[in-house]
Amino acid sequence: MAVQSSVVTRDVEKIADQTGNIYESVVVISKRARQIAVNIKEELNNKLAEFATTVDNLEEVFENREQIEISKFYERMPKPTTTATEEFIEEKLNFRLRGEGDTRQEL
């Protein structure tokens, strides 16, 4: 999946096609984006936990290039909403709207 990190104009009708309602589509996308954001945050925190120190020295801050590179990598990643929107448009998300007997699974 090639996720673009820049701003892209989306066809609202294409987004609304899967649910029949643009607002329901946005809810599905936003829930998936939250899931992605939580996963990314946990992953980043686990990687940065290795560098956690109890004493902050000014010298240690400037010397820790690996931590800076990890942070820059995560800053350059596409936003969770962009990734979730791409997944939704490419029909890679399984979801079920409440109150319906749909065969799709809820996020």
UniProtKB/TrEMBL annotation:
<keyword id="KW-0240">DNA-directed RNA polymerase</keyword>
<protein>
    <recommendedName>
        <fullName>DNA-directed RNA polymerase subunit omega</fullName>
        <ecNumber>2.7.7.6</ecNumber>
    </recommendedName>
</protein>
<dbReference type="InterPro" id="IPR006110">
    <property type="entry name" value="Pol_omega/Rpo6/RPB6"/>
</dbReference>
<comment type="similarity">
    <text>Belongs to the RNA polymerase subunit omega family.</text>
</comment>
<dbReference type="Pfam" id="PF01192">
    <property type="entry name" value="RNA_pol_Rpb6"/>
</dbReference>
<dbReference type="InterPro" id="IPR036161">
    <property type="entry name" value="RPB6/omega-like_sf"/>
</dbReference>
<dbReference type="GO" id="GO:0000428">
    <property type="term" value="C:DNA-directed RNA polymerase complex"/>
</dbReference>
<keyword id="KW-0804">Transcription</keyword>
